[in-house]
Design brief:
Blueprint lengths: L24 E5 L3 H12 L3 E5 L14 E2 L5 H7 L3 H7 L7 E5 L4 E5 L10 E2 L1 H9 L7 E2 L4 E6 L5 E5 L5 E3 L1 E4 L17 E12 L2 H4 L1 H7 L3 E6 L2 E7 L5 E8 L4 H4 L7 H11 L5 H9 L2 E9 L12 E3 L2 H4 L8 H17 L6 H30 L4 H10 L9 H11 L10
Parallel strand pairs: 1-2, 1-11, 2-7, 4-13, 11-17
Antiparallel strand pairs: 3-6, 4-5, 8-9, 9-10, 12-15, 12-16, 13-14, 14-15
Bound molecules: flavin-adenine dinucleotide.
Length: 426
């Protein structure tokens, strides 16, 4: 199914293609935030783009946490894509609140949203996808196209093959197909490495009734509960449901070897209740009222990864540099990749596509190495024996003993500045 069933279509500018892309067919594999952002940015500059996505339709429900978009990366890409105004219609700045607890349920730090300074609003994954899908020309996305392999042709192009579909030809391929990318092996033999952590992801419906204490702690934003080298991380989505992750270190094959049947909610509940047995009972209640569980081993690419740029073939987003979510930057990096790649291909500074790709990959690998390092440091901190102390020290430094003054101070500041419109609102 193509993207013609959508509503709220966003107007397309029409331009003649940038010189490097004239008469070039561009294939983007994967309609995640990275691939869709790139498609939008290239189409705005007149390029001939097709996105191949394995999901059957745009209506497949996307699971998982909401995403906070940062001003210098994710939001910048949306701004250049002309989608900032549409973004603010679905964004949730109130999702910026943070509450940090210990395992006994004692609040250690609350950081309410500073309304006038709101800079990292949350957006649900499905809303972000709809926004980007609706910004593309009709027929840009070919749904239900599971990419299998690519091969160079004699006339300097690529032939793409799909499961149960006709093959396609393209002059330039971008692999935006996520952590288990099937494009990546054609670019580099370097594989993502298991991070040491497996999350158990849960979605809790009607949390206001089902687990009111947790709902109150999450307070429309983010909850971090750390202790015993484990964590419970919670987030509210736009529909009011909570997405919760139980995080802990496990061997890479733990999902297969633990003896837990992760398709059985009862077995996963039993495991979680045992693993968190001496935590505040509200957490045990949380596991009890959850029905949707999924185990997610987390992977990261090596910080020093490097490869020779391939002929008219590159990667972006998780396919290029997957990282665990502990620094909350994966989607922002994917969208910034899209922005930088579109810029390199269309800004007229390079005489060949190859030069443009080389420059993009250099920038992308340098930038994401820093993000990867930050992610690894955060992951280590979250699972350290003194995780809570480390987190408070990192956030507040010497001001930690005064942390209980933060909520009233922010409330007073919000009161004083309540008449002001946050600067970023359009
Ligand atoms: C549990 C968890 C929580 C996270 N939380 C955050 C967070 O709070 N903040 C943040 O910034 N990041 C977070 N991330 C990371 C973030 O989700 C990713 O970095 C981001 O989605 C990457 O976007 P992408 O477009 O590169 O890839 P993806 O979002 O993975 O999209 C890839 C697309 O390619 C498609 N695809 C895959 N294989 C094929 C194929 N063979 N053929 C055709 N299509 C294919 C997929 O169906 C998908 O649509 C989290 C990740 C996880 C696992």
């Amino acid at each position: 199914m193509k993207n013609h069933e959508r509503t709220n279509h966003i107007k397309q500018p029409s331009l003649s293609p940038a010189p490097l892309l004239t008469e070039k067919r561009i294939a983007i594999i994967g309609a995640g935030p990275g691939g869709l952002t790139l498609a939008r940015l290239l189409q705005m500059r007149g390029a001939d783009v097709t996105v191949y996505e394995r999901e059957r339709s745009p209506h497949v429900r996307i699971q998982g946490s909401s995403l906070d978009l940062h001003p210098e990366s994710g939001r910048k890409a949306l701004q250049v894509a002309g989608l900032e105004e549409a973004f603010w219609r679905v964004a949730r700045p109130e999702g910026e609140t943070h509450t940090i607890l210990d395992k006994n349920g004692v609040i250690q730090l609350r950081i309410p949203q500073i309304k006038v300074l709101s800079s990292k609003p949350e957006i649900d994954r499905g809303d972000l996808r709809d926004l980007l899908v609706n910004s593309l020309q009709l027929g840009t996305i070919l749904w239900d196209h599971h990419f299998l392999a690519l091969a160079a042709t004699a006339d300097d192009r690529y032939k793409l093959t799909f499961e149960g579909r006709e093959p396609a030809l393209a002059d330039l391929i971008i692999g935006a197909d996520g952590v288990h990318s099937k494009v990546r092996p054609s670019v580099t033999p370097i594989k993502p490495v298991y991070s040491g952590v497996t999350l158990i992801q849960m979605e809790v419906a009607n949390p206001k009734v089902q687990c009111p204490q947790i709902f109150q702690w999450v307070n429309k934003g983010n909850l971090f509960v750390l202790g015993d080298q484990k964590g419970i991380l919670g987030q509210q989505k736009g529909d009011g449901n909570l997405v919760v992750y139980a995080t802990a270190e496990h061997p890479e094959d733990w999902v297969a070897t633990s003896g837990i049947d992760f398709t059985s909610p009862e077995e996963v509940k039993a495991y979680l209740k045992g693993a968190f047995a001496d935590w505040n009972p509200v957490f045990l209640r949380l596991f009890e009222v959850t029905q949707d569980f999924a185990a997610r081993p987390l992977y990261g690419t090596p910080i020093d990864q490097h490869w020779e740029t391939q002929h008219h073939l590159t990667l972006l987003g998780d396919a290029a540099h997957v990282m665990p979510p502990f620094a909350g930057v994966g989607v922002n990096m994917a969208m910034q990749d899209a922005l930088e790649l579109a810029e390199c291909l269309t800004n007229g500074q390079y005489t060949t596509i190859q030069q443009a790709l080389e420059h993009y990959e250099q920038m992308m690998l340098t930038r994401t190495a820093l993000a990867q390092k930050k992610t690894m440091d955060q992951e280590e901190m979250f699972h350290a024996p003194d995780a809570l102390e480390q987190l408070l020290k990192k956030l507040l430094g010497p001001w930690t003993p005064l942390r209980h003054l933060i909520p009233p101070a922010i409330a007073a500041f919000n009161g004083l500045t309540g008449w002001m419109k946050p600067a970023h609102y359009v």
